[in-house]
Amino acid sequence: MKFQIEDVTVYFPYDHIYPEQYAYMVELKRALDARGHCLLEMPTGTGKTIALLSLITSYTLSKPNNPVKLIYCTRTVHEMEKTLAELKLLHAYQTTHIGDRARILAVGLSSRKNLCVNSRVLAAENRDSVDASCRRLTASWVRAAAAANPNLPTCEFFEEYEKAGSNAVLPPGVYTLQDLRAYGKEKGWCPYFLARHMVQFANVVVYSYQYLLDPKVAGYISKEMQKESVVVFDEAHNIDNVCIEALSVSVRRQTLEGARRNLNKMRQEIEKFKATDAGRLRAEYNRLVEGLAQRGNLPFTDNWLSNPALPDDILKEAVPGNIRRAEHFLHVLRRLVQYLEGRLETDNVEKEGPVGFVASINTHAGIDQKTLKFCYDRLHSLMLTLEITDTDEFLHIQTICDFATLVGTYTRGFSIIIEPFDERMPHIPDPVLQLSCHDASLAIKPVFDRFQSVVITSGTLSPIDLYPRLLNFHPVVSRSFTMSLTRDCICPMVLTRGSDQLPVSTKFDMRSDLGVVRNYGRLLLEMASVVPDGIVCFFVSYSYMDGIVNSWNENGILKEIMQHKLVFIETQDVVETTLALDNYRKACDCGRGAIFFSVARGKVAEGIDFDRHYGRLVIMFGVPFQYTLSKILLARLEYLRDTFQIKEGDFLTFDALRQAAQCVGRVIRSKADYGMMIFADKRYSRHDKRSKLPGWILSHLRDAHLNLSTDMALHIAREFLRKMAQPYDKAGGSGRKTLLSQEDVEKMSDGILNEMQY
Amino acid sequence: MFKPNDPTSASKIDVEFRLIKGYKNTKEGSNNPPLLNLSLEQGGSYIFEFENFLDLQVCREFVGNALTKSGDAAKAKSGDTAKAKSGEAVKATSDRSTVTYPDEQLISSAEMELRIKLLRENSELQNLHKKFVLGNILTESEFWATRKKLLDGDIGTKSKQRVGFKSSMILDIKPMTDGRTNKVTFNLTPEIKYQIFALKPAVHRAFLNHVPNKMTEKDFWTKYFRAEYLHSTKNAVAAAAEAAEDEELAIFLKDDDILANAARQKIRRVDPTLDMEADQGDDYMHLPDHGIFRDGSKEITDSQHEQFKRTFLQDLNRQGEVVLEGRTIDVELEDPRTVAEALAQSRQESDENAKQERLDRISRMTEMEDLQAPHDHPLAPLCIKDPRDYFDSQQLKTSDDTRAGSEQLRCSLSSEEAYGSLRGSISEIKAMGLSDPVVRPEVAVMVLNGLTQNISSTKFQLGKNAQEGILNSLPNTTKEELLHHWISIQELLRHFWSSYPITTSYLYAKVSRVKDAMSKIYPQLEEIKESVPSDLRQQVFLLVRPMHQALDAAFQHYEADLQKRSAKGGDKPNGYV
Q: Tens digits of per-residue pLDDT, A132-168?
């Protein structure tokens, strides 16, 4: 369908549109007009992605003299694929209705591991070894050597790509990772480098958060993005955590041991070069005297992760004299490693600010702040000079240099915490030194500064006023949309009591109570006998899940559950979890029915949809609070309180409830879908907890459903499922329309728009 | 009857199979020529020499079948000394050892076995078989032709649907303790062994490699459960120590490398919308030591002994996978060795178009179903104006072949009737459900009453109980006789009606044979009627009448057809019929 939003003609690939999608587009359009940032919350299952994509592409079409580039950031690769698939649909629609004018180039970008087509490289186990084996074939010096000696292996795909030179371009179209690989194979060009090259010219780029937020990656991938870009962070409810992780480093014993090995290896290399090619080292020295700025003109393939500090924080000055010579630099690193080793030998938990830590390094190891700051770039330069291709072998020393650079660069928003062991396992010594970032706004700041519009959107951004404070920005539009439902297709319930009428909770003191465990088991068992197809359960942590599943096994509940449905479980092994999910879907497809046990804050909760029959019921066992005894969390809470005046309790509840909302929100994907959500913990019935849930869940949470026991919940579930099985009128029938046709949109007044917002 | 291939010997042997009590043959591969030795009951034996072993095999199989069959028949006759021949007696010409049945139909030994099995399981069928086939009223093939479905169906279910695994199979293997000592007993059934093989390919492989060359089966399982015990104690260190000492034990303790490889392969075919493995390659957080290491949300793993630490959760996932794959082999579970081998074979399969399917799935997933017009499914709406019509036609269809017998069916045995009415009510519900969301019970009751009026009428006449009451009130012998008669009548009628129109002389002969048999039953029914006490006569009469009616109808038809035939084609030679 085609309609007008103010001066923009929007091409939408479906015959109908939800009113909230329309309202969403209107707000988004206003934000684009104002060239400012915006924050939009719209419930899951209302088609955020397609609304966003069609508005932004249509916006560019309507204003050809002012094209905007769309940088779409997703949390995971499979979301990237989903987004690109939706864009493909939209693109097909737009090109058939407008013609060639609507042609765009959209690429997805991922790591070498997901894009490489060279079978020799792909044989490597993990991402880092794929990167390294790619480098082994494509680094500039390898290729130079191979030109002289044809027996040396190179990557034929990269050579072909290089040969094609500027002709190596992607024709317009939408390319998923799969398509890129297929295209690369067909042409014989390396898809990874092709995609990285095309990123600059593409109208739409879809990639992971890290490519913008993590300075190490953003430094060499997103550097050339123009200011006239719209950056979208989808599923952004966890964006603050991503930002924090991007700037945090931890050092363990293994790291230090590895770093020592790396240093020895490098010393040998230096000795070798001294004997054979002393000129190289001298050339490097001279270059360093002139200043570092060498990254810009490096060959494409020699790029590594960039400096972990943010681009604006890197001083534009020459490398300090005391680390210009390679062997001197190695000495400095050796002293640093030794110092860190000494710090790890502690029996008490220590907490320090970066300033104090740097001062103590200076006194004990004789390394000043400026030297620390340049560690990372100096290491880079050295590794290039030494022509090291096995980058995966040298990860440990890179970690140490990351740490040094970060600690030397920032004076606030960080703290260094040394723990001799994990509190939960005090008998196992495992000292760790963590540099943890507390301020999410640090990592995202350059993004807000550089790009004209940044859109942060998700199904759960409540309370919506907290995000601007956490991320320290000023949105021009900040809206939360409701969901216009044709029928009550979601049914949230708060279950406070088990079948024996005793309260259930995962509160610390009740957690291991056998009665609670049994009540949870009975709840699942009863539900499994009533609910068809798929059920998803979320637990508060892996260890809790492990414990409860084992005790269900012991007292026979698990066996009873398995008489109704198959059981699949998320484990820490990603491959296994993926296969378990695949089998779970198979079981739902074939009608056997299955239950998936998963963990809040886990990978499954973050990115996997349990829509339609894949999830008719989701049970959230407990409130997924963070581990409140964690030293890092405490430090962060303290920082938030001091800097942003956010109370500890408020933040913890907010964080727990957004995770819970995220978990239960996975069950619904469109209005034709339906699902139940059970919050199984007595604490959910308290107003201060419950009110932090997003509005679209709260509005369906009836007062009668706030204090249920298992038998009542079972009754409600039966009723609900029976009601949902009936046919209904999709357009919403009388009263409010929930599905708009083109006509409806044309004669729509602003009145409806306001209705959609809170 | 064996005819020697050698034209010079004129002798011809004709021995009835029932006289043969056993047979021996030379083994293939031995130096002896292919010989078959048939020993006779009266002593003495025949030795046949064959040209090659293939012929011998064929012949031996045939003889074996014939022997079991005649033995079976003898049993069925239970002491009956009647001369056995009929369908079982088989004529074999051995001029190149080709085996033929009298009706020129080659029946595979498998089918033969199936028939024998069916006969043995179903005494009713056996009776019928005895009566008609052995009584020369129907031939063997005729008898079975009407039961093709029974045969086919049996084969069909065998190959198509296997019993799957139980969802909770890993929990079934529970040890038993005797309470006093520390001894633990595991009860292993072939089924459990098979489940273990399916769940754990490494154990399976170890079994193939080690049993019985390196260790006995018992040792193997002892070791296996020792390993399981170590797992259950969750003591990874102890497990590691034991594994270091005992190489075979280590197999069970380590992670299953076969599974790991399979996982790596399967991950490539996984739905991209849930491929979390791809993220791992993309997410730069996975650089070691980057990101927040210990904030309480991440778990601690003991990396050193990780390979000995298999969790219950992993087992659960694996079990789910195996259950979904279903049973892949179809062998008897008696011998673990054969099970293991069969399983190994079934593991070798591959699929190609998985990739395309993967792509299709993602494009289907992305569409928002309710924003666009629904996809057109090729189905026509079912609209039934008058349910009555629909059921009547359905009824006709189902009871078409037993039309003649359907009357008596109502009164005596109601399986067909029940099926019909059940079917009717199911389609009723379907129909009503489509035209009207709620099935009104009164409508259903009305329809049911209408359909079962016949039953209800007898029911009301007799008072409380339905037709079973009548039968039960009869003396046992009478009841059985009646039932037996009506089954025979049904069978005969089925053959009778299915032979019309008569197009070949063969059919004609069959019809007259059947008719003769039926006319023999007719007076027998009369006898029963007479023999019962007077108070029950009325009811027996009611039961017998429909049988008579059905028979009468058949006779009438036969007469009419005969007349027509003779009137029309009187000039045809008698040999035609």
A: 888 888 888 888 888 888 888 888 898 888 888 788 8
Highest-confidence segment of A437-451, B39-53, B208-222: A437-451
Alpha-carbon distances, residue B112 vs A439, B62, B208, B425 (angstroms): 82, 10, 36, 39
> Using the beta-carbon criterion (under 8 Å), do B274 and A78 form an inter-chain contact?
yes
Give yes or no for residue B76 having a pLDDT over 50. no
Q: Mean pLDDT of all residues in chain B?
A: 62
Q: What is the pLDDT of residues A557-570, one digit of tens each?
A: 988 898 889 899 99
Q: Decide the pairing of beta strands A594-599 and A617-621.
A: unpaired
Contact A595, A561 (CB under 8 A): yes
Taking contacts as CB-CB distances below 8 angstroms, the residues of chain B near A244 are 292
pLDDT band for position A15 (cuts 50, 70, 90): confident
Shortest CA gap A528–chain B (Å): 14
Radius of gyration of chain A (CA): 28
* Cβ contact A78–B324 (<8 Å): no
Amino acid B367: pLDDT: 64
Burial A611-625 (b: 16+ CB within 10 A, else e): bbbbbbbbbbbbbbb
Location of structure tokens 């086919």: B152
Give B523's contacts (C-beta < 8 A, 6+ positions apart). none
Q: Which residues, including other chains, have CB under 8 Å from residue A722's CB and lie 6 or more apart?
A: none
Candidate from B263, B290, B292 with C-beta closest to A576: B263
Tell me what the mean pLDDT of segment A314-334 comes to.
81
Query: Which stretches of A435-568 are DSSP H helices?
Result: 440-450, 466-471, 514-530, 542-554, 557-564
Q: Quick check: B417 pLDDT over 60?
A: yes
* pLDDT over 90 percentage in chain A: 31
Q: Tell whether omega for the bond before B175 is within 30 degrees of 0, i.e. cis.
A: no
**ipTM field:** 0.74
Burial readout A125-155 (b: 16 or more C-beta within 10 A, e: otherwise) = eebbbbbbbbbbbbbeebbeebeeeeeeebb
pTM check: above 0.80: no
pLDDT at B75: 43
Cα distance from B270 to chain A (closest Cα, Å)?
6
Per-residue model confidence (pLDDT) at position B38: 57
For the sheet with A429-437, list strands across it: A249-252, A429-437, A414-421, A350-352
Alpha helices in A103-205 (DSSP H): 112-115, 119-122, 127-138, 140-148, 156-164, 177-187, 191-198
Counting one residue from A and one from B, how many pairs have CB atoms under 8 Å apart?
A: 259
Cβ-contact A641, A648 below 8 angstroms: yes
Asked if A443 and A243 touch (Cβ cutoff 8 Å), the reply is: yes
Is residue A69 a contact partner of residue A205, using CB atoms and an 8 Å limit?
Answer: yes
Nearest to A610 by CA among B266, B47, B273, B562: B273
Residue A638 C-alpha from the chain's centroid? 25
How far, rounded to the nearest angstrom, does the alpha carbon of residue B108 sit from its chain's CA centroid? 18
**Consecutive H or E run containing B20:** strand B20-25
Contact B56, B39 (CB under 8 A): no
Q: Do A419 and B274 touch (CB under 8 A)?
A: no
Kindly report, residue by residue over A38-75, the tens digit of the pLDDT: 999 988 778 888 999 999 999 988 888 777 889 999 88
Kindly report the three-state secondary structure assignment for every residue of B294-332.
CCCCCCCCCCCCHHHCCCHHHHHHHHHHHHHHCCCCCCC
pLDDT band at B484 (very low <50, low <70, confident <90, very high): confident
Check CB contact of B313 with chain A, cutoff 8 Å. Answer: yes
In which element (H, E) is residue A480 found?
strand A477-480
Ramachandran angles phi, psi of A694, nearest 5°:
-65, 150
Q: What tokens appear for A200 in the block?
A: 């600059």
Element housing A630 (H / E): none
Question: Would strands A566-569 and B35-40 be described as parallel, antiparallel, or unpaired?
Answer: unpaired
